[in-house]
Specification:
By secondary structure, this protein is mainly beta. It has a domain of 85 residues: Roll (SH3 type barrels), CATH 2.30.30.30. It contains one helix and eleven strands; from the N terminus they run αβββββββββββ. The strands form three sheets. A six-stranded antiparallel β-sheet has the order 6-3-2-1-7-8, with no helix packed on it. It has a three-stranded antiparallel β-sheet with strand order 9-10-11, with no helix packed on it. A two-stranded antiparallel ribbon has the order 4-5.
Length: 127
């Protein structure tokens, strides 16, 4: 096993279920004090790694120093990139209460699985 796969703890076989999906509004539960409690929007979810890419005030950012390359039209300087956040540090934002909530799964009339807020009973339908 390589160091990278040990570090990422990638799940083999079927990917585990996630309580968040792309496009959800989430709240950061833990992390730096300046970002804790801030909200953001999920851009992408990586279920095998149990991580998500979040955009907004709660997003994690890396800064890289890039060397200029005029042949490839690359400008030099510092470039900021979004960094993934573990999904255990994110909570779904309940649109009715405006607070973080946990979700349970139920089946709707069509037989599809729908996420339901435990606090308010709001149904998060798939778009």
């Amino acid at each position: 096993m390589t160091i990278k796969s040990q570090k990422a703890k990638i799940h083999e076989g079927r990917p585990p279920k996630c309580h968040i999906r792309t496009g959800d509004s989430v709240v950061l539960l833990t992390g730096p004090k300046d970002r804790r409690g801030q909200t953001g929007t999920v851009i992408r979810v990586f279920p095998r790694r149990q991580r998500a890419l979040v955009e907004g005030p709660c997003s994690a950012v890396d800064t890289r120093h890039v060397k200029a390359n005029p042949q490839a039209n690359v400008e030099g300087g510092r470039v900021t990139r979004l960094r993934t956040i573990h999904i255990s540090n994110l909570a779904l934002l309940d649109p009715e209460t405006g607070k973080p909530t946990r979700v349970r799964r139920e089946r709707n009339d069509d037989g599809k699985v729908v996420r339901v807020s435990k606090k308010s009973g709001h149904r998060f339908e798939v778009q």
